[in-house]
Amino acid sequence: MLGMKNRRSGASIALALALGVVLFGAAAPASAHNQVLDTVPAADSVVTEQPGTFSVTTSDALLQAESGNAMVVSGPASDPRYYGEGCGVVTGGTLALDAQLGEPGTYTVTWRGISVDSHVISDSYEFEWAPAAGVELAAGTVEPSCAAASSGDGQTTTAPDAGNSGSEPAVALGDVLWIGGGIVAALLAVLLTVVLVRRKS
């Protein structure tokens, strides 16, 4: 009789633990935040021919938003000018900008995108432009064509800053809510375990 009670208690504990795993799994995010998979040209690379198209490809789709997505190509570092028209085009998880480069030197690609889950992902990287002989150079402009992107409320936001990468405060709040939900689910599972064990005893 005692062995049967022990088996029942063990089964109850296993059931409660399984329920806790299910609840915690439901409270966890469905997938990790959007991440960069590839850039063209690659960071820290040496480019000798006009890339034509600059792009950043991420692991998740980007919103086809009229504002928020932005890409700026600037250089050389010694006397920076800006290259390309507009703020880039989104196709799936790729943000791309057509641009021709100017004088040789170190160039910077600065970009920002909005994932379909509303997370903001942004960063910047450098590459070396060493055009081969005969490559046609662009003049560039003094001001970036994507210096200000119009937001939905009529206000304007400047193009992404090189040091301003990652997510905005609203995104961090969402993460806190996910974590809090997971903790609550785990506590409920423990409480259910205690109740079931006491009943079987």
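Next protein, fold it too.
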Amino acid sequence: MGEGLRERKKRETRERIADVAMGLFMARGFDKVTVAEVARAADVSVNTVFNYFSTKEDLFADRQHLAVDHPVQVLREREPGESVVRAFRRDVLHAIDTQDWRYGFNLGADVFARIVDASPALVARMREVHEQREQALALALADELGAGPGDLRPRVVAAHVLTTTRLLTHASVTRRIAGEEWESIEPGLRAQAEQLFDLLESGLGGYGRR
């Protein structure tokens, strides 16, 4: 059954408010913009804003469900015979090739990062998002592999895989903030991704042996 008129109008209103808010945040910074200003710019009431978004942070993180759901999607859609690590390697390398937003390799990721870094509230919110991503992936792993409640392996795997992707995102964004063009970032980032996923696949047992 398709989306009804009422649902479509609600979705469009929510998206318009979030887009207007993001424009203001990008122009002036998150902490300097009030919900009342967002409401005026979006031509809605403050109550309407709060009908769609419980907090101001929700305005900024409107699409956080996509970020939380994506690792689970990678897990579910891995190819026959493909390991979890191999699936994430493939997905990350594809994101590098296409400069995709899902790992922060897109143009403008540095602007997003600057807004977050300038606001303690957003730093805390992004930490929550990372924790939700890790928990969602660990639960999906445990469910798919039939892990018992005391089995820590799904949590360890989720933590290692998503820490790897987060470090690659940070490396890319840091270099963009420093003014580097993607053409100079991409080769080294790809090489780092290959090295890190090689390490995950081979295990840490031999790393650093004297």
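About the second fold: Residues 60 and 198 are 35 Å apart (CA to CA).
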